[in-house]
Design a protein that fits this description.
heterodimer; A: about 50 residues; 2 helices; about 90% helix; rod-shaped; B: about 550 residues; mainly alpha; Cytochrome C Oxidase, Chain A; about 0% strand; globular; binds copper (II) ion; heme binding (chain B); cytochrome-c oxidase activity (chain B); membrane (chain B)
Chain lengths: ~50, ~550
Amino acid sequence: MAKAELKSDTKTEIEDSSSLKGTLVSVFFVGFFIVVLWVGVYFLYLDRF
Amino acid sequence: MLKSSLNIKVDRRDAKLVMAHFYVAFIALLVGGLAGLLQVLVRSGKFELPAGIGYYQILTVHGVVLGLVLTTFFIMGFQLAAVSKTAGTFTNKQRTIGWIGFWIMTIGTVAAAVMILLNEASVLYTFYAPLQAHFVFYLGLTLVVVGSWAVGTTIILKYAEWRRANPGQPSPLLTFMALVNTMMWTVATIGVAATVLIQLLPWSLGLVETVNVGVSRTLFWYFGHPLVYFWLLPAYMAWYVMIPKIIGGKIFSDSLARMSFILFLLFSIPVGFHHQLLEPGIDPAWKFLQVVLTFLVVIPSLMTAFSLFATFESYGRSQGATGLFGWLKKLPWKDARFTVPFIGMLAFIPAGAGGIVNASHQMNQVVHNTVWVTGHFHLTVATAVVLTFFGVSFWLVPHLTGRKLTKKMNKLALIQGYLWAIGMTFMSGAMHAAGLLGAPRRSSFSEYGGAAQAAEWIPYQIAQAVGGSILFIAIILMLYIFVNLAFFAPKGEEEFPVGEAANQTEKAPMVFENWKLWLGITVLLILFAYTIPFIDLIKNAPPGAQGYKLW
Ligand SMILES: [Cu+2]
């Protein structure tokens, strides 16, 4: 049990120092925002024209 | 060794030229900001302009003075500083050309401004024909453009000199970026110069009686869209190269930055039709083509977003940050040189998303000529770009004047940025919302004969007045900081931050410096996107329009 914990800790550390996970999630958020706004106005457009 | 000792500080003589540009830019901020305040107050319905001053006159002041004068002067100054710092001090000849350009631009600015203030040129920021201004207004604008070409020449000459002295080497990143923006500006301004010199000037002088409105609008927007990228690219210079150094991190990739700038050069110009999507006289197929090209500009924008997030995350993790967003906490939030431009970056997310909506061909009908569009460009140029320029001023002005940004000024600068964020959230947010409800842009307060729909807009106009007033306070604060940094701050050394790439061994591919290739593709794309519709606009033109003075 203790061993397993130690192992997973080291793994996170290596991953963390060079990982760009946050960047990936951030750019997905930007993309999501663009899509939501676009679809919102698109339905407004369908509704009006 | 020679190189590093050469470029510790921007040379005093170059600094003077840069500061001359900044003085004009910040005077423009005061004048244009005041006009903006008056506009939102009028539109709240609670205030009327005194002494017979017209709403459309102050609207013209606001747009021309901030959109054309503040931006062009700041950008020219900033790019001169960036080139002088990274490619070396200008020769006397190069600097003289720069000064000549500065004075031509300044004389042109004063001429155009006087005509607007005399109420002889209330033709709004876009100066669309058939609204007709006094000929001196058009002459003044021509001088601004010609002067900017001279300043651009200084940058091009310095770049050429650097390349001759360093054969086979990629140019310094900041010099490269300033050069791309200068070339884009030069190609784009040919359009506005053409409509002013060939159409509007002879027409306002009475040499010809009528003007082809479709052609003049097309030439204007051939220039008008790259104009917004001319504003944006210097902000990107700061985001790509200076912000990494300020936070203590690295540029994510030198080559990626160069490639995104090349893509902006290619795709910023042949896209003007996305401003004319509801105009007659242009075949929908050509509009669609330019819509597609417009969407290609999204690519370098998203590359920039990725690269900036990556810079921030890499830095945060190098400082021991963990988890998905732990790196956010490691960023220097107390440093105005970082935080104020960062607010600008954040604003660019809704700004860019709104821009995609605007450019979506048929969907443009939902927002066209509504105040949504005004809300949109107050996020792009009036937040993302301007807050970055302010953030640059916090270190560049004291660097040039041999002073220091004090702790107290840094604090004021942070407050300035927060105030801007709050004021703009109110103003731009209300503009977006009212625009979706159909509120028109470029229009003074009116109840439209008591129409129910128009009554819906009024609460949003009050919100705009609240936001605009907060923004005006932020402008006053900014002017106080600028004057302090230019004349009163304690003497000292302020760093000019130039970031280094994360991977120093990676040399930027030399193909990026092949201007025959890039300018060639630029010209081809322009010819492709514009030739046939342009012939159409001339050949099948309706009768020309006489001039109108509706103010
Ligand atoms: Cu545009």
